[in-house]
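@channel sequence for tomorrow's demo:
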Amino acid sequence: MQYKSLGNTGIKISEFALGCWPFAGGKVWGPQDDAVSISTVHAALETGITLFDTAEGYDDDSHSEEVLGRALAGRRNEAVIATKISPPHLVPNLVEQTCDASLKRLQTDYIDLYQIHWPNHDVAVEDSMAELIKLRDSGKIRSIGVCNFGVQDLSAALASGDIVTDQLPYNLLWRPIEVEIQPKCLENNVGLICYSPLAQGLLTGRYSSPDEVPDGLSRSRLFSNDRLLANHGEDGCETEAFDAIDSVIAVANRLGEHPAKVSLAWVRSRPGITSLLVGARSPEELDLNIPTFEYELPAGVADELSAATEPVKAKLGSNADMWSGDNRMA
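structure tokens (generated this afternoon):
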């Protein structure tokens, strides 16, 4: 496992992070045993993972923050906790009490990385940032990050204070951040935390055609708006996406590696990447990711993979919002 710094904070985090949304179970993830979630956190610590990403909004069958807090009881000093404040709570008089509620659920007196989950364009970002800076100055949080911020929102936040990370969707099939957002992050020393690095499983080779993809996953802009749960209003790029998947699998087969391993290594090789979220619901699923932690692509392969997925990038354009044609990442 390799480790990187959160901006200039001196906080070191693992290059792979455990995404804790699945701990909530519910309609998105299905039934999830809290005991298995806790075992997964313990297994992650043993593999060298130190960054655990959750949110106040992950609260379906179980509350992800609460489960993570229980898992880290007695081991808090081994972990870096990243959690998120939801858009409705960015109103200045709600920020501190929202943070306090997260602290209580997490069973800790500080949060290492407190992130704005999505922009709230009904609240001036400088007002929200002023409250977050107060939390940092008081020691309740150690650093401030954002999620799903495009160039305009990120610029406004940076004008109000230090932002150490922007958490965004990024993978071989989802590259819109490369157009504007990634350069802005690089220019301002804002690290990228990547979610969906395997395109919600598409890059594992699990599905051989668009029609095999479950409704909950086929609602993204990669797919036709005719899909059952899609509401983005676009034609999608199903042909281009599955041609690209075939190319990624062919490269992986030539290397004698799993396409997931190759795909994750490609994301790691991109400039400005601080950490990748691993979606593991059990110690067994986590074990599947361990071989990727140290794997580096052979020379030239990253460029080959980029070329193979260029038609998808061209079709998607600069809108980094996976689910809405009306870009919420301004």
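heads up for whoever presents: The two ends are 34 Å apart (CA to CA).
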